[in-house]
Known about the structure:
Blueprint: H1 2-24, E1 29-35, H2 48-51, E2 58-63, E3 69-78, E4 88-101, E5 104-108, E6 118-125, E7 128-136, E8 145-152, E9 155-160, E10 163-171, E11 174-183, E12 190-199, E13 229-238, E14 241-251, E15 265-269
Antiparallel strand pairs: 1-2, 1-15, 2-3, 3-4, 4-5, 5-6, 6-7, 7-8, 8-9, 9-10, 10-11, 11-12, 12-13, 13-14
Amino acid sequence: MKKNILFLIITLISLACSNDSENNNEKECSLVSAKITGFYYDDITISNDASNSNFSGKISFEYDIQNRINKVKGGLLHVPDGNNLNKWGLSNDVEDVVTYDNNTIKVDYSANSESKPYKKEFTLNNGILISRKVTKIYPLQLDPVIYTYEYNGDEIKEKINGKVYRTFTLSADNLVKIEQIKYGFPNNEIVGKREYLFLNYDSSQNLLKGKFYINGAFFKAFSKNNYKQLKIREYSFKDNTYTLEDESGTSFELTYDADNIASLFERDCK
């Protein structure tokens, strides 16, 4: 009987030590950098030839004392030429500054650059995007545009002044489609639409999920995994019928580390 009790005590101690060891071996990781593969700058045109000379293809992050991203290194640079004064590229020499005010995240894009494209504010509730305010600055500062978000199951309505601008559709916690209706001027009639299709998702964790404030990663931030194909379709609208006019897109392959984290991300683990 004493032997059985002694064996039980030894077993319990062994299990406790094993559990402690497992807990101590859990990795604590912070995101160091992210490749811009799959990024999409939907509210500004990026000139590819402007970024080739001074851009590594990735952005890196710095953190505040609360372990929140407060600086994004690498971003938009104004590179005007004779044909296009509103020309932007990506550069390692610029940075975006991120500040926090309760549930609002404020971003000063290209903070150390003389010309800034815009500044933005994002309001979240428990990680859910509620609204964002975009103030375009260059070449002239315009009135802010405020986008609000309404959630209904796997559908998200993005609205401006109460009118639907875009509809986001999710499946299995991943963004699979965005539909943007195009309106004519001055009668505000429907003239077409644009569709974004996000395809070929992997099963790996998307480390940019919820980080709506990172420029170019807004679409990616809705998804728990990483898409590997993006299609963009343009439609015209006539006689109550949408007609496909053009399709473009991109696709890419990913590799993964021993923790099944995509090669898109660089982490610092302790």
